[in-house]
Amino acid sequence: MTTVALIPAAGSGTRLGAGMPKAFVDLGGRTILERSVDGVFAAGVDEVVVAVPAELLDATRSMLPRVHVVIGGSVRSDSVRACLAEVGPSASDVVLIHDAARALTPPEVFTRVIDAVSQGSDVVVPAVPVTDTLKRVVTQQSGAVETVVATVDRTPLRAVQTPQGFRPEALRRAHAAAGDATDDAGLAEAAGYAVHVVPGDLMAFKITTAWDLRIARMLLESTGV
Ligand code: C5P
């Protein structure tokens, strides 16, 4: 069973506000991207492709000699398709797509996803239950005021993480149309595939804001990873 991992890392990092693309921000002496790539290899993945902003192509190739590095696109799905074009989806038995921003994902999450695809699922996502109360709102007065219109039952809701796992054919079909989605399983779902869920892990959270980065740094300090 061979596994390839595609890592979109071409986001601008605007919400993080670090003044540089998010994947290249320092996280305990290594970049967020290096930590994500380390995690992928530690999980036994055979081959890795990373998509980065054009201006960081050469620097990333020097930083990560074991991985293929390509130029990402203007939206996440374009970055994934750039990775796919580099390897071709049928180059392995399992294809994982993993956000660079989920730098602290434990190896067990990778194992659960790979195992589920190996056992016959076309598309697999790791997910965790939602803990906050969720409300649907409408925005009035030019965005100044929000009013609740419904309280949503959170029982059947899940917050979905990465790595997401695919049989190569399912991923190829999911990306056959040039759509964009916040995750690749969403494209597969739209293409008619059943998406199976395995337990995720709170450590697989996505580093998006300055708050997330602070938490990630504290976790690294406290666990000594
Ligand atoms: O923006 P968001 O945090 O949802 O991005 C998720 C992942 O997709 C990040 O690792 C980011 O670097 C990547 N991305 C990308 N190309 C884009 C936008 C986001 O590779 N154009």
From TrEMBL:
Catalytic activity: 2-C-methyl-D-erythritol 4-phosphate + CTP + H(+) = 4-CDP-2-C-methyl-D-erythritol + diphosphate
Gene3D superfamilies: Spore Coat Polysaccharide Biosynthesis Protein SpsA, Chain A
InterPro entries for this protein: IspD, IspD/TarI, IspD/TarI_cytidylyltransf_bact, ISPD_synthase_CS, Nucleotide-diphossugar_trans
Annotated transmembrane regions: none
Annotated GO MF terms: 2-C-methyl-D-erythritol 4-phosphate cytidylyltransferase activity
UniProt enzyme class: transferase
PANTHER family: 2-C-METHYL-D-ERYTHRITOL 4-PHOSPHATE CYTIDYLYLTRANSFERASE, CHLOROPLASTIC (PTHR32125)
The name this protein goes by in its record: 2-C-methyl-D-erythritol 4-phosphate cytidylyltransferase
UniProt organism field: Williamsia herbipolensis
